[in-house]
Each structure stands twice: as structure tokens, then as C-alpha cells.
Write a structure and sequence with these properties.
Helix 23 packs across helix 32. The chain has 833 residues and is an alpha/beta fold. The structure holds N-[methoxy(oxo)acetyl]-beta-D-glucopyranosylamine. Its EC number is 2.4.1.1.
Length: 833
């Protein structure tokens, strides 16, 4: 009864706790105090950004409480294995909204902010997102650290604190223009610098051998210079659980005392030059997903963040009183593609050179620690570095790679005697011409697990680029199909749908996505379908307003929103969708009274700045839009929009408004895709090929609820082997001929018949991504899509079933797979610890 009394008391007179209180009064008080003591403002003279900062600091305080408790509990326990997710990219997206959801104080914060005279949505819109990634790979890393926290897996994400993230895209005259992303300009309330945890990283110089006190032959690295890594931590809260992990990103700085010699000799400029050189390492994210082979700074970035992270992990391990060679018992490292794969050699260097662990013991430790995820089959994305560059930048690491390779190749020749082809293919060093270090080979040698990101992708990996490795180490191979976090991509971005689902099946699903199955019966409930339709319509109205604001194009919210948003790449085939648009336009031009389903085609995505064809595809989309959108014959039945600057913030507004999701890559080329999952979760139907995770999405939602078209991966390979002839297809398909002729006629380029020639010539004479082969199948499938759209009840039934059957694609499930198959790590309940 005492407890009861105090409850009653607290409810009527809350004790305000400005650092951890979750009630409206505490939040208000905390915001007001942060506003004054951190920003020097009062609520009456605040700018929106100052208010955003104050609200975010208020949330950050609460996260720190959880982070502190989590880390104390973890570090108190000697038997916990932690995950280290190493990634050159974390495409985090805005933080305020998800943190409010994870802390379960969205409503309280809304009210607090409202009582202060503002709206939470306006404040959230103020946030400049940390775009520290290019696309799928970086966004996956962000989803995974979210899910690790939510699954109560003790984990640290390790990466680089780029001063400039992925460029901002603007469209001028239909072309992409890149603008520097100054995301730190207005301050970052989510991070804390931890200068006392700084570590140094060596570069350049030479190595030498010496005898240690036990007369053992050892090596040491005499670098030219050192660079200091300063960690910046961002808390990563779990969803409605007390666990809070963190993301630790490294900023490079000049090593304080290092260049004092030249400074003292009066060479002030040399000292400053060294400072600039050091700070450059974490200056900018590389936007290219293609060949980076010659980019010295990129290799420096990779080694810098890997070395910082491993030193930090060793420091943590030793703090637990661990022995260096037991490192693998404390840590499971996941290498997000080959970008951090130099970790294999660097961990060996630390164990052998710095802690004098025997080579064989160190090798066992290293292999038991590291695992590698491959994210692409595209040969141009397989990283390799000139041996000379390695020798120049990190000479000791190269020696260790040579030693690893020497021992490994001995093993290969004894397993496969006389197979010289295998030997040269599996060698870490490519010796076919100029010598290169092959990063995927280094990863495969030094990792106990290797995985692809969707079932099809893993099979193709095993058959194609990693075939030799399967023969050597079959037990190392796994599949872990990608997933996405429903907290950000449904709860936060689609409140209308979320509330409808909660009304119908309760609120357990965001943390347990299989629960969505309970929605299935509602697909046959006309009243529910109507509510579902009206949620979608509201989302489309919001997007339509934004499209008007950003592009000037007026679109009809009741038309079908046909959306393709992702990086622009030929294998993703944005231009196949353009061919379809032109085919529809031609049908209208041939018969202006034709009965045609009104559609709004929405594209978005960045092209790598050096990828000419991708940039020309953006220009083509905009050019076709200019003609189609303004032709009176079209009568607004078709609209084509290129939504500029596709990023996480914009993505959150686009997925909820989509009716049709375009997942039309050439089969066998898209490793998984994750946008495909976000669309389905938000009730879009997919038109797609049997590629990446599309295969599994179709399996889950049912063949009848998925618009499938196109060649299979095996058929694509067959066609290539048998001498694929795109021109022959063109000659035999009148609609296709008319479409291509229309482009070549200059109709979309003010009479310039050359502008888009690189695209059409490539399609007619090479067509490496088989658009010609899939064209007629795609058009036929799109016609079926249009027919289905006319039956609103049927369309919505299918869309609801898509939502209901997406449980598998929560990143929570992916993380559970990694824990069971690869990391051998269990959830750690800090309340029970
Ligand atoms: C991407 C793949 O292209 C995409 O299919 C996949 O869903 C995503 O990774 C996450 O696994 N790959 C990259 O972004 C990349 O840079 C080297 O690969």
C-alpha cells in the first residue's frame, strides 16, 4: 500500500528529472535548460535549429543513461562475446525520430514540444542526416546496428567519421550536379568525442628485424609518420529494451608531438602540411562504387579505421584481463565487404609484432575472430590494390600478407597438387600483370565464415567468383538474407499505416515482425481495405506536395505511383523503365483517346560522379519527363518525375507513398536489394525479376501477389554463352523499334540526335544488361499491372498480403541468423545480468 501511495503521489505531482525523466514536464524542463545552457537561447528567441539541438540533447542524455548501464553490465561480465561490425559506411539517416520511438516517448515529446509552442515534425525536419554511406551496403550497416541493440546483442559499430558524407545531388538542366555535404555545419548533438581513447596509426617508412630478450627474431615497423584516431561515439538504442550500444567513428588528426623536429628547425609550413595531410584521411566519403584501385587516400582510410578499431578492441579486451591470444573469445568481427578486410593482416601484426604471440596461435585467433560478408558479384567492385602502393603506405602489413599467402599457398598445393590455375586464382597476390593485393582473397583466407546477402546471391557466389574457395573451405559458407528495420521504415516513416496495423493486431509487431501475419484475414475485409487505401492516399498527397515543391511538377495523387529509387546503375536498369514510359507515350500519340491507367513515374538516386552512362540516364529521365509532362495529348495521364537528392530522409517520405515498386535489375546482378523490402512493408506491389532478395520476397508474399517477369540468372548466362544478339531482338519487335527511334530522333533532346546515342548504341550493339531481351516481357507484365490496378479491391487485397507476409525481412531476423550461424553470440539481458 506504501508503493501504491507513492505511485498516486508521483502521478499527481511528478518529480522533474531533467536528465532522465520521461514525462512531459521533465522533457519540457530539460529542453528549456539545454536551450539556455548549451545554445544560449530562450524559448522566445530560439531558432528552429537551436530548438532541434536542445530537443536532441534532451534525448541524448537519456540514451547515455542506457548506454552507461549497458556497458557497465557488459564489462562486468567476463564471458560476454561482443560483436564488432566494421564498415567503411554507415548510412544512418536522421536520429531524433528513431530514438524517440526506441525510448517509447514519441507522444510525450510531441506534447512537450507543443506546450513550448512548436511542432515536433518541424523540429525533426531540421535534422541534417549523417550520409556516411553510398547506398545499400551503408544503409544495411545502419539497420544492423539498430537490430543488434534491439536484440540485446552487445556490439560496437566501427567506422569513419567523414567530415563530408555522400554529396548532395541537385538537378540543373536535367543533369546531376554534386554539392559538398557539410553535415556537421550546424553541430551534431548525437556524438561525444572521446579524446582520451585516441590511438595512433603508422604510415610509410620501413621495417627492420631484431632479436628480442629471448633471442627470438622479431620485426618492427619504423614509420615515416603517425596519424592519431579520435573516436566519436553515437549511442544506438534498442527498441523498447534497456540495451544501448554505440557506433564508434574515427576522426583523423595529426599526431601531436610527431613533427616537432621539423617545426623546431623552423620548418613551420612542413609541420602544418603534415597536419593537413593527417586530417585529410577522414575528410570525405568516396562516392564511387566502381574502380577505386589507384586511390591512395582510400587505402589510407581503410587501414586507418581498421587499425584504430583493432587497437581499441584490444584495449577493451585487455581491460577485461584477457590474454591477447584469447581475443577471439571476446570479439566477433564482421567485415562489411572487403573495405575493412586489411583487418586480417592488421590483427596478425598486432598479435605477432606487438604482443609477441606465436604466428600459428595468432593465426588461429585471427581466423576465429573474423567473418566476411560479400555484397556484390560485379567484377569491377572486387577491390584490389597495387602491391607498390601497399609497400609504400603500410610496408609491415604487406610483409605479413606475403607470409600469410606463402603459408596458405603451401596448403593449397598440398590439397590440390599440380593445380596451378587454382594456385594463381586463390593467391592473395594477383601476379598476372602489374601486381595487386586481392582483398577478397585476403578475407577468404583469414575468415572462419563467408556469407552472401540473399539465397540466390550466395549460390551464385559459390558457383562463380568464390568457387575455388568452396572447394577448399565448404564449411565456411553461409547465407544470411538481408533485412531492414521496421522501426525506421514503417513505424517512423508511415505513422498512418502503423496506427492502422496497431488498431487491428496490437503493437508487438515492430519488435517481432512475424506478428504481421495476423493481418492476413484483414485482406478480405472491405472496410479494412478502405482504411488501408485511404492511408496510402494520404501518404501520396504528402509526397505530391513535396514533388511540387522540389521539382515544380504537379502530379495526381490518385494516379498509380510507380517508383524506382536506388543508386543509378546500368545493371539496375532505370532505363528499362524509361523504355516503358516511352512505349506508353507512343500508344497515346498513336491514339490520344486510348484508355490508359494514369501513372506517375517517380525516380530517385545518385550516380557516381565519374559514371558517365549513369549520369546520362538521369538526363534521359528528365528529358522524357519534360516532353511527356507537357504534351497536351497526354492529358496528365502520365507524369515523369526525378526526385532530387535521394537520401534516407527523402526515402522515408517516398516508400510509404508507392503503389508499384520497380525491382527490375538483370537477373544475377543485384546481390539482394533492400529497398525492395521497404516498399513491400509499406504496401507497394512489386514488379521484379528473379534477382537478389526478390526471389525470397515472392516466395513469402506468394506468386499471385508479385508481378514477375524476365529472364532468370541461368537464362541470362546461357544467352551470353550462345552469342546474345540485341540487334536481332530489336529488328523483330516493332514497339521496341519505335521507342528507340523516338529517342534517336532527338524528340527528347531538342532535335539533338547525338545526346542519347551512347545509350541507344550500347543497347543495340552490346546490351550487357539485357534490356532488349527483357523488353517485351516487361511491357506485357506492366500491362498486367495496369489491368490489376483497375480492380481497386483486388490491388489492395494483394498489397495488404504483402505487408502481412514481410516478417522475414526484418533486420532483427538477419541479426538472429548472424548470431546463430556465424557469431555464436547470445542476447545479453542487462536487467538479469
Ligand atoms: C549492395 C548491393 O548492391 C545490394 O544488392 C545489397 O542489398 C546491399 O549491398 C546490401 O547487402 N552493394 C553495395 O552497396 C556495394 O557497395 C560493394 O557493394
Amino acid at each position: 500500500s506504501n508503493a501504491n501511495n507513492s505511485k498516486v503521489k508521483r502521478a499527481s505531482a511528478p518529480t522533474i528529472d531533467v536528465r532522465s525523466g520521461m514525462d512531459v514536464e521533465s522533457l519540457k524542463q530539460a529542453i528549456t535548460e539545454h536551450l539556455f545552457y548549451q545554445q544560449g537561447r530562450n524559448i522566445v528567441n530560439t531558432s528552429l535549429n537551436d530548438l532541434y539541438m536542445a530537443v536532441s540533447h534532451t534525448v541524448h542524455d537519456r540514451l547515455l543513461q542506457h548506454e552507461h548501464k549497458t556497458m557497465n553490465a557488459v564489462f562486468d561480465n567476463n564471458n560476454v562475446r561482443l560483436v564488432s561490425y566494421m564498415s567503411a559506411e554507415f548510412l544512418m539517416g536522421p536520429q531524433l525520430g528513431v530514438n524517440l520511438i526506441d525510448l517509447n516517448i514519441m507522444a510525450e515529446m510531441e506534447q512537450a514540444v507543443q506546450e513550448l509552442g512548436f511542432s515536433l515534425n518541424t523540429i525533426m525536419a531540421q535534422e541534417e542526416e549523417p550520409g556516411l554511406g553510398n547506398g545499400g551496403l551503408g544503409r544495411l550497416a545502419a539497420c544492423y546496428i539498430d537490430s543488434m541493440a534491439s536484440q540485446q546483442i552487445p556490439a560496437i559499430g566501427y567506422g569513419i567519421r567523414y567530415e563530408f558524407g555522400i554529396f548532395d545531388q541537385v538537378i540543373r538542366d536535367g543533369w546531376q550536379v554534386e554539392i559538398t555535404d557539410k553535415w556537421l555545419r550546424n553541430g551534431n548533438p548525437w556524438e561525444s568525442a572521446r579524446p582520451e581513447l585516441a590511438v595512433n596509426v603508422k604510415f610509410g617508412g620501413h621495417t627492420e628485424s631484431y632479436l628480442d630478450s629471448n633471442e627470438y627474431l622479431r620485426y618492427r615497423w619504423k614509420p615515416d609518420y603517425m596519424v592519431t584516431g579520435i573516436p566519436y561515439d553515437t549511442p544506438i538504442m534498442g527498441y523498447k529494451v534497456p540495451s544501448c550500444n554505440f557506433l564508434r567513428l574515427w576522426k583523423s588528426e595529426a599526431e601531436e608531438s610527431f613533427d616537432f623536429s621539423s617545426f623546431n628547425q623552423g620548418d613551420y609550413y612542413k609541420a602544418v602540411e603534415y597536419k593537413v595531410k593527417s586530417e585529410n584521411i577522414s575528410k570525405v566519403l568516396y562516392p564511387n562504387d566502381e574502380m577505386l584501385g589507384g586511390k591512395k587516400l582510400r587505402l589510407k582510410q581503410q587501414y586507418f579505421f581498421v587499425s584504430c578499431s583493432l587497437q581499441d578492441m584490444m584495449n577493451i579486451h585487455l581491460r577485461f584481463d584477457g590474454k591477447p591470444q584469447d581475443f577471439h573469445k571476446r570479439w566477433a568481427i564482421q567485415l562489411n565487404d572487403t573495405h575493412p578486410s586489411v583487418a586480417v593482416a592488421e590483427l596478425m601484426r598486432i598479435l605477432v609484432d606487438e604482443y609477441h604471440v606465436d604466428w600459428d596461435v595468432a593465426w588461429h585467433t585471427t581466423c576465429s575472430t573474423c567473418s566476411y560478408t560479400n555484397h556484390t558479384l560485379l567484377p569491377e567492385a572486387l577491390e584490389k590494390w597495387p602491391v607498390g602502393l601497399f609497400a609504400y603506405l603500410i610496408p609491415r602489413v604487406l610483409e605479413i600478407i606475403f607470409e600469410i599467402n606463402y603459408r596458405f599457398l603451401k596448403e593449397v598445393s598440398s590439397r590440390f597438387p599440380g593445380d596451378n590455375g587454382k594456385l594463381s586464382r586463390m593467391s592473395i597476390i594477383d601476379e598476372s600483370g602489374e601486381k595487386f593485393v586481392r582483398m577478397a582473397n585476403l578475407a577468404c583466407v583469414g575468415c572462419c565464415a563467408i556469407n552472401g546477402v540473399a539465397e540466390l546471391h550466395t549460390e551464385l557466389l559459390k558457383q562463380q567468383i568464390l568457387h575455388d574457395w568452396v572447394e577448399m573451405f565448404p564449411e565456411r559458407f553461409h547465407n544470411v538474407t538481408n533485412g531492414v528495420t521496421p522501426r525506421r521504415f514503417v513505424v517512423l516513416s508511415n505513422p498512418g499505416l502503423s496506427n492502422l496495423i496497431i488498431e487491428s493486431i496490437g503493437d508487438k509487431w515492430p519488435g517481432k515482425l512475424d506478428e504481421l501475419r495476423k493481418l492476413e484475414p484483414f485482406a478480405d475485409d472491405a472496410a479494412f481495405r478502405e482504411k488501408f487505401r485511404s492511408v496510402k492516399l494520404e501518404n501520396k498527397k504528402i509526397l505530391a506536395a513535396l514533388i511540387k515543391e522540389r521539382t515544380g511538377v504537379v502530379v495526381n495523387p490518385s494516379s498509380m505511383f510507380d517508383v524506382q529509387v536506388k543508386r543509378i546503375h546500368e545493371y539496375k536498369r532505370q532505363h528499362l523503365s524509361v523504355l516503358h514510359i516511352i512505349a506508353l507515350y507512343l500508344r497515346i500519340k498513336q491514339n490520344p483517346d486510348i484508355d490508359i491507367v494514369p501513372r506517375t513515374f517517380i525516380f530517385g538516386g545518385k550516380a557516381a560522379p565519374g559514371y558517365f552512362s549513369a549520369k546520362l540516364i538521369i538526363k534521359l529521365i528528365n528529358s522524357v519527363g519534360d516532353v511527356v509532362n507537357n504534351d497536351p495529348d497526354v492529358k496528365d495521364r502520365l507524369k515523369v518525375v526525378f526526385f532530387p537528392d535521394f537520401n534516407v530522409t527523402n526515402a522515408q517520405l517516398i516508400y510509404p507513398a508507392a503503389d508499384l515498386s520497380e525491382q527490375i535489375s538483370t537477373a544475377g546482378k543485384e546481390a539482394s536489394g533492400t529497398g525492395n523490402m521497404k516498399f513491400s512493408m509499406n504496401g507497394a506491389l512489386t514488379i521484379g525479376t528473379l534477382d537478389g532478395a526478390n526471389v525470397e520476397i515472392r516466395e513469402e508474399v506468394g506468386n499471385d501477389n508479385f508481378f514477375l517477369f524476365g529472364l532468370t540468372a541461368a537464362q541470362v548466362e546461357d544467352a551470353k554463352r550462345n552469342g546474345y544478339n540485341p540487334h536481332f531482338i530489336y529488328d523483330n519487335n516493332e514497339e521496341l523499334r519505335n521507342v528507340i527511334s523516338m529517342i534517336n530522333s532527338g524528340r527528347f533532346s531538342n532535335g539533338d540526335t547525338n545526346l542519347f546515342k551512347p545509350i541507344t548504341d550500347n543497347l543495340l550493339w552490346h546490351d550487357p544488361f539485357m534490356l532488349m531481351a527483357d523488353f517485351s516481357l516487361y511491357i506485357a507484365c506492366q500491362d498486367l499491372v495496369a489491368e490489376t490496378w483497375k480492380n481497386t479491391a483486388e490491388w489492395n487485397r494483394m498489397a495488404i498480403l504483402n505487408v502481412a507476409r514481410m516478417g522475414k525481412f526484418s533486420s532483427d531476423r538477419s541479426i538472429q541468423d548472424y548470431c546463430e550461424k556465424i557469431w555464436k553470440v547470445k542476447p545479453f539481458n542487462i536487467r538479469k545480468a
